[in-house]
Every structure is written in structure tokens, then in C-alpha cells.
Amino acid sequence: MKLVPLGAHVVVRPLEPESTTRGGIVLPEQSKDRSRQGRILSVGDGRLLRDGTRAAMQVREGDRILFDIYGAIELEINGEQLLVMSEDDILAVLG
User: Fold this and answer.
1) Distance CA 84, CA 67 (A)
2) Could you tell me if 3 and 82 are in contact, meaning their C-beta atoms sit under 8 angstroms apart?
3) Distance in angstroms (rounded) separating the CA atoms of residues 10 and 33
4) Distance separating alpha carbons of residues 77 and 63, to the nearest angstrom
5) Which of the four pLDDT bands, split at 50, 70 and 90, describes residue 27?
6) Mean pLDDT of 14-39
7) What DSSP line would sit under 39-83, residue for residue?
């Protein structure tokens, strides 16, 4: 199944949360939060403006992002966990 986002939405593959800290401490499974980072797989056409034109998306396929986990919709497509979210739920693009 192919998932194509509409408007100002994106499809994201969440990245696995870190299993160790920068100092080398191994984190137990219970202390790991859900990942707040992901890689954009596809983007919509952009937000429709009142004059009928579309605003360009600020992100593109392949960008690594930081996002608000509460704004995402979780889906399982072909056995893979994916997220669909609005561009407004993206907090930053990571370099």
C-alpha cells in the first residue's frame, strides 16, 4: 500500500530512541521515551491559500526532523510503523 499525504501533511518514519547517553550509560527499556525524531518519507502539495495557490512546504523528503509526538497519527503500513502529521507539528529540521 502506498501512503500519499495531502495538503500540508507529511509521512515520517520515526527513528529509534537512543539506547545509551553521551556519557556511555546504557538506558533501560522503561526509561526510553518514544522517539521524537524521524525521517520524512513523503510530503504533501502544501497548504491551500485563500487565493487558490499553494504555500511551498518548508521540509522535503529525506529531511531528519524533530516533531511533537502528540500531533502525529500512528499507522502500520506493510509491517512498518509510520507517522502522519501536519507540517505545523514539525519543530525543527536537524542538520
Assistant:
1) 11
2) yes
3) 22
4) 20
5) low
6) 73
7) EEEEE-S-PBPTTS-BPPPS--TT-EEEE-GGGPEEEEETTEEEE
Q: Taking every pair of C-alpha atoms in the chain, what is the biggest distance, in angstroms?
A: 54
Average pLDDT over residues 20-43: 75
For residues 79 and 87, what is the distance between their CA atoms, to the nearest angstrom? 25
Beta-bridge partners for 82: 75
- What are the tens digits of pLDDT across the range 51-94? 999 999 999 999 999 999 898 999 999 999 999 999 999 999 99
- Residue 30 CA from chain centroid, whole number: 23
> In the numeric block, which cell numbers belong to residue 78?
506493510
Q: Look at residue 15 and tell me whether its pLDDT is greater than 60.
A: yes
